[in-house]
Specification:
Blueprint (H helix, E strand, L loop, with lengths): L1 E6 L4 H9 L5 E7 L8 E6 L4 E6 L4 E6 L1 H12 L3 E7 L3 E7 L5 E7 L2 H16 L11 H6 L13 H18 L6 E7 L6 H12 L3 E8 L2 H14 L4 E5 L13 E8 L2 H11 L4 E7 L3 H5 L7 H4 L1 H22 L2 E7 L10 E7 L5 H18 L4 H5 L7
Parallel strand pairs: 9-10, 9-12, 10-11, 12-13
Antiparallel strand pairs: 1-8, 2-3, 2-6, 3-4, 4-5, 6-7, 7-8, 13-15, 14-15
Helix pairs in contact: 1-2, 11-12
Length: 396
C-alpha cells in the first residue's frame, strides 16, 4: 500500500477527483463522526450512464442518481464533516481517504489482488448459472428502477448481491405459495417504506404465480406513500395500494392471507406479528430489526456470563427475542421457522421468521412452547412485548 499524503478537508475534493479518474465501480462513504448521523453508510455504484447513490439508514435505503460530471460535488456534499472514510474500488485498485476529527485527510492506494478478481469473476459466473425465480430477461420494471436490472433485463454486475437477496426472499415465499391451491391472495405489507421489494412481491404473485392479488402497503410517512402510489400506477399494478397508517388498529378491507413485515424496528415487529395473529393470517414473513427491548431488560438469574460482555449480550438478546417470537407464533397455531435471509458475512441481522397457520395444533405443543418462553423470561427477567400483547399471563 502506498501513502500519497496528507492535506486539509478543504482539499478533499482534489482527492475525490483523483479517485474518480480510475473509474471506480463502487464508492463507499462510511464511519460517520456522529452516532446520530441519519445515514450509516452511503454506497455509490456505476450504472453505465449514471451513478446510483444508495443512502442507508438503520431501517431503509434511499436512492438517487447523478451523472459523472456531478459526482465529485455530490460526494463532497455527502461526506464533508460527516464521515471518516471514503473507499473507491476499481477492478485493479482501491483508493482510500481517511479523514481525522481535525479534518486532515490521509489518501492511500492499494492494488486489488489478482486472485480476488478471479474469484469475483468465478462467483459471478456461478450466480448466473443458478436457476433463480426472477430471471434475467423478465420485464420487471421495479428492478430496473432499483438499478438491479438494465433496461434490457440483464443483471447489473455490481448489483448481483442485491439480486441474490431479492431472489432469496422470493424463494422463501415461493416455498409456501407454490403449494397453495388458491386463485386469489390478500396481502398486507407493514412498514413498506419506499422499498421496491413490495413491488417485486406483487410482480411475483401476479406475473409468475398468476394469482389475483389484493395488496396494501402501510407506512407512517405521507410523502413515501404518495411516491409508492405513483409508482404502482406507473407499473400498472392496479390492485396494489399504499396507505398512511400503523398496523396496530388498522382495519383490513379483506380477510388477510399474508402479512409481510421487513425491518420493522424493535417492538414494531411484535405489533405486526400480533396483528397478523389477530387477523388469522395464513402466512407471515417477517425480517426483524434492531431488537433492543430485551437487551435493556436482561438480568440473568444463573447465567451472568451471557450479559457480561457487551457484544455477547447484544447478540444473545437479539436471538432470544426472535426465539421467543417463534415459540409464541407456534403457541398461536403457526408452524414457524427461523431462516437465514442473507449470508452472515453481509450482516448479523439475517434472520427471517416464516410462519404458516396449521390446521390443527396439538395441545401439548402449545403447552411446551409457552413453558419454554416462561422459562427464559424467568431466567433473564424478560418481559417481551408480544407475550404481553397476547395477554398470556391469563393463560394456564
Amino acid at each position: 500500500m502506498s501513502k500519497i499524503g496528507r492535506t486539509t478537508m478543504t482539499e478533499l475534493q482534489q482527492y475525490i477527483q483523483s479517485m474518480l479518474k480510475v473509474n471506480p465501480q463502487k464508492i463507499i462513504i462510511s464511519n460517520p463522526f456522529s452516532k446520530s448521523e441519519e445515514y450509516k453508510k452511503i454506497i455509490i455504484e456505476d450504472k453505465g450512464k449514471t451513478y446510483q447513490i444508495a443512502k442507508y439508514t438503520e431501517k431503509q435505503v434511499f436512492h438517487e442518481n447523478v451523472v459523472l460530471e456531478e459526482l465529485a460535488i455530490r460526494c463532497i456534499e455527502l461526506a464533508e464533516n460527516r464521515y471518516k472514510q471514503i473507499n473507491g474500488i476499481s477492478t485493479s485498485e482501491e483508493h482510500i481517504i481517511l479523514i481525522s476529527k481535525k479534518g486532515k485527510c490521509n489518501y492511500k492506494v492499494k492494488k486489488t489482488a489478482t486472485d480476488t478478481v478471479k474469484l469475483t469473476a468465478k462467483t459471478s459466473s456461478h450466480n448466473r448459472q443458478k436457476n433463480y425465480i426472477l430471471k434475467e430477461g423478465m420485464n420487471i420494471e421495479p428492478l430496473v428502477d432499483m438499478g438491479v436490472f438494465t433496461k434490457d433485463g440483464k443483471v447489473v454486475n455490481a448489483m448481483y448481491d442485491k439480486y441474490k437477496q431479492i431472489n432469496r426472499f422470493i424463494e422463501i415465499i415461493d416455498d409456501e405459495v407454490s403449494n397453495l391451491k388458491v386463485e386469489e391472495l390478500n396481502v398486507i405489507d407493514f412498514g413498506c417504506g419506499k422499498s421496491y421489494l413490495t413491488f417485486v412481491v406483487y410482480y411475483y404473485l401476479t406475473e409468475v404465480m398468476n394469482l389475483k392479488v389484493n395488496m396494501i402497503g402501510l407506512d407512517l410517512k405521507e410523502d413515501v406513500i404518495k411516491k409508492c402510489n405513483e409508482a404502482a400506477e406507473k407499473y400498472q399494478y392496479t390492485n396494489l395500494k399504499f396507505e398512511v397508517g400503523d398496523v396496530n388498529g388498522f382495519k383490513t378491507p379483506f380477510d388477510v392471507d399474508m402479512v409481510i413485515t421487513l425491518h420493522a424496528c424493535d417492538t414494531a415487529t411484535d405489533f405486526a406479528l400480533y396483528n397478523a395473529i389477530q387477523w388469522n393470517a395464513k402466512m407471515i414473513f417477517s425480517v426483524p430489526c434492531c431488537q433492543h427491548e430485551l437487551n435493556k431488560q436482561i438480568e440473568p438469574e444463573n447465567l451472568g456470563i451471557l450479559s457480561r460482555y457487551g457484544i455477547i449480550k447484544e447478540r444473545f438478546s437479539a436471538l432470544a427475542t426472535d426465539a421467543i417470537r417463534g415459540n409464541l407464533l407456534e403457541y398461536c397455531g403457526y408452524k414457524t421457522q427461523l431462516l437465514e435471509f442473507i449470508d452472515f458475512a453481509h450482516t448479523p441481522k439475517n434472520i427471517l421468521i416464516r410462519a404458516v397457520r396449521r390446521p390443527i395444533m396439538p395441545k401439548q405443543v402449545k403447552v411446551n412452547m409457552l413453558k419454554e418462553v416462561r422459562s427464559i423470561m424467568k431466567e433473564f427477567s424478560f418481559e417481551p412485548t408480544l407475550y404481553k400483547l397476547l395477554e398470556l399471563d391469563k393463560e394456564d
